[in-house]
C-alpha cells in the first residue's frame, strides 16, 4: 500500500503566493489587452456597417413615432374638414379619414400641412399656361391695403417618404463627433470579437488559484460564461431596444415634446444596455460559485427567493436606463435565471475532494 501523502504535498503544485497571483493577473490582463487591440483593428473595417446597424432600431422607432403623429394630425384635419362640409380628395385613401393611419403606415409617407393663397396660384398658372387656362376667369384683384386673412388661405398636404424626413435620423452637432462614433463602434466590434479570448484569460487566472481536481470546471464555466454574456447582449439588442424606445417616445408624445436624438447619446445607450444585460446574465454561474465555496446552499437559495427577486429588481433598476420597461425586461429573465441557477447547483455534480470523509 503506497504511503499517504500529506496535505502540504498534495497542494504543493496548486498553491501560489500572493506575488505569483499578481504576476498571473498582470499576464492575463496584458494578453487580454492584446486580444482587444487585434479585435479593434478588425473592427475598424466593420465600423461603418456597425454605425449603420446600431442606428436601425432608433430610426425604426422614430419612423413609427412620426408616422403615428402625422396620422393623428392629418386624420383630425380631414375629420374637421368633413364636419365643416368641405370636400375631401376623391379617389384616394384620404377620402375616408379612418383610413389615413393605414395609408401612412403602409406606404411609409409623412404629410405636412401647408397653406397657400389660391388666387395667387391661379394667377401664376394662368400667366404661365395662358392657352390651357384661357377659359378660366381670374378673381378681381384684392385691395392692396387689405391683408390676407387665414380664411383666404387653402390648406394642402405635402407628402414625402418617411426615410427622407430629417427627423428620423440621428444627428451630430460638431465636426469630430462622427469620427468619435466610428472609433467607439469599432471598439465595440473589437470587444465582441475578442470576448472569447478575454473570457478565456479571465478563467485562466481563476484556474491558477484552484486545486487540480477543481480546474476541470474552467472548461465548463468559460464557454458557459461567454454564452450567457452574448445571450444577454443579444437580448438587449433584439428584444429590448424596441419596447424601451416605444415607451420613451410615448412619454414624449403624451407631453407634446418632439424628439431630436444625438448619435453619441444613442451609442452610449447602445453600449450600456447590452453590457448590463451581458454582465447580469452571469447570475447562474455566480450562484454556482457561491454554492461551491460554501457561502450559500440550495436550501438557502430556495428559502430566500423573495429577497433575491427584490435584489434582482433593484439591481436591474441601476443597470438599465431610467424607465420601467427596460427594468422589467431585465428583471424577469434574471428571475428565471435565478431558478435556473438553483437547478444548476442541484444537478451539476460536485467534485469530490481528496479530503472528504467517507
Descriptive account of the structure:
There is one protein chain. The protein is mainly α and 358 residues long. The protein folds into 2 domains: 17-62 and 173-347, no CATH class; 66-168, no CATH class. 65% of the residues lie in helices and 4% in strands. It contains 11 helices and 2 strands; from the N terminus they run H-H-H-E-H-E-H-H-H-H-H-H-H. The protein has helices spanning 7-10, 18-83, 100-107, 118-128, 177-208, 218-255, 263-280, 283-292, 298-303, 305-319, 324-347, and strands spanning 109-116, 154-161. Strands 1-2 form a two-stranded antiparallel ribbon. Helix 5 packs antiparallel against helix 6. Mean pLDDT is 78; it is low at 1-14 and 352-358.
User: Regarding quaternary structure, how should these chains be classified?
Assistant: single chain
Q: Could you give the order of strands across the largest sheet? A: 1-2
Individual helix count? 11
| Overall 3D form | elongated
How many domains, as an integer? Answer: 2
Distance separating the two termini: 19 Å
Poorly predicted ranges: 1-14, 352-358
Mean pLDDT: 78
Helicity, as a percent range: 55-70%
What class do helices, strands and sheet pairing give?
mainly alpha
Which series of helices and strands comes N to C?
Answer: HHHEHEHHHHHHH
- Biggest beta-sheet profile: 2 strands, antiparallel
The radius of gyration computed from the alpha-carbon positions, rounded to a whole number of angstroms, is: 32 Å
Number of strands: 2
Strand content: under 5%
